[in-house]
Each structure stands twice: as structure tokens, then as C-alpha cells.
Design goal:
ABC transporter ATP-binding protein, 21% strand, P-loop_NTPase, AAA+_ATPase, binds adenosine-5'-triphosphate, nucleotide-binding
Amino acid sequence: MAADRTPPPRIVCAGLAKTWEGGLAALRPTNLTFEAGQTTALVGPSGCGKSTLLRMIAGLETPSAGTVLIDGQPPAQLLRAAGLSVAFQDPSLLPWRTVRGNIELALSLARRPVDRQAIDDLIAMVGLAGFADTRPAELSGGMRQRAAIARALATEPRLLLLDEPFGAVDEITRQQLAEDLPGLWEARGTTTILVTHSVTEAVMLSDRVIVLSPRPAEVVADIAIPLPRPRFAQDARSAEFGQLADQVVAALSLGRARHDGPLAAQ
Ligand SMILES: Nc1ncnc2c1ncn2[C@@H]1O[C@H](COP(=O)(O)OP(=O)(O)OP(=O)(O)O)[C@@H](O)[C@H]1O
């Protein structure tokens, strides 16, 4: 898995909006820039439109209005060049392939060399050592999610989009992944956008947290997380960490209050 020397991309969403057929609005017109090499967390109430935003950035969903440009190009370009990886809540592993087989396929599709040792290292890093030759049906939900994370990382994407990738992962493994993953994508130079329901995880992993309102989503707050790295689970007990987490929680409440308030837009 040779390192991709192309620098990580900058993503510009301009007037990006989504209204589903039938008129359900998921995202109000939104301007957002994701800086090259940064990790950004998107947090917001369930159903507010986080996944919709992420899927439009991935080029998997067509915007109703506005554009997504990744280094000035539409997402499809990066997707075709295998520079973009996504890992979703529901890991879509091929059931007839083992964990290693799923990763090998991703590498082959991305026309990347298949380095068995590097694959095994990645499998071990997500806590699946000993399960490389196991098929998805024999893994727990959390293990499948970790396999999907390993697969997403294997191609060394320039842009990594993670949609609640730790949803089914147990707390201890979650903490371990939250400690290990940022170092990996920092070392490789990756722009990462992460959807999570966990405020602690958002602050732990990110350089910036964007808080979205209830549906149709709009940006309520854009909070920089200037905490030094690497960050460890116990750092979540520091005063600085607590203050940042409180800001995120306050923004979530503000979004809800605005949404439910008498002046809420229809
Ligand atoms: N393919 C689709 N067709 C129609 N409506 C959709 C579609 N996908 C999502 N929606 C609707 O769009 C809204 C936003 O959904 P989305 O999945 O983006 O929310 P989310 O913030 O990611 O939710 P959660 O945190 O619960 O995963 C929801 O009301 C959902 O029902």
C-alpha cells in the first residue's frame, strides 16, 4: 500500500441543499468549506440530514441545489480515481469474502498493490487480529463495522467519509479507535468528515465540530477544537475538553430551541 503523495483535498459546498421527492427538506442551502487535511465532525439530532450531507459530498446523492467541489472537481472524479473512501453505519461487506478478502478487493478495485502484511497490520489495528480469514456472517455487528473501517482505510484515501462508523462498536474498542485513527489519517494526509452522535467522540477526533439543527439541517455552530494531539481517552476529563464539549451541547440545544421556537421557519 504505497503512500499516495497527492495532498488531501479541500471541499467546498456552495448553496448545497436537498429536498427529497415529495417535498421533505433535509438540508437548507448550506455553504461549508472543509479544509485540506482537517478532520471535521458533523453532529446533530437524529434524522436532521447529516448522512444526506455526507452522501452528497461523496457524490452518492444528487443535490437539489448548489454544488460540492473537491479541489475544484465534482466528487465523482475523486470517486473514480479511488481517492475517496466511505464507511457507513451499515457496513456493506461482501458476505462470501473474508475480512482480508474484502480489503483485498477494495485494493484491487482501487488498483492498489495488495500487501498482505500491511492488510494484517490494519486488521490488527482495528482489533480484529485473528479474524482476517473470517467471513462477515461469523462476526458481530461491531466487528463488521471495524472490518469496514479497515477496508475504508486500506486504500489510503485522500478523502475519508465516516458515517457513524463506531455505532455498533463497544465502548473500550471505540476509545481505542478514537485514539488510534486520527494518527493514521494525519500521517497519511487525509481530509476526514465524520458523522457521529457522540459529543465526546466528535471533540476527541476532530479539528472542528459542525453542529446542525433539526431537519431541515442548517449549521448552528462551527466550533474549532484546538486540543493538542495525540489525544487519549483520559483527556476527555480535562477542563478544556469539557468546555469544548459543553459548547457543542449548548449549540445542539440552541438548534433545537430555534427549531421548536415560535419563529421557527417552516
Ligand atoms: N432516500 C431517501 N428518500 C427520502 N427521504 C430520505 C432518504 N434518505 C433520507 N431521507 C430523509 O431525510 C431526512 C434526513 O435523513 P438523514 O439520514 O440524512 O439523517 P441523519 O441526520 O443522518 O439521521 P441519523 O442521525 O438518525 O442517522 C430524514 O427525514 C430521512 O427520513
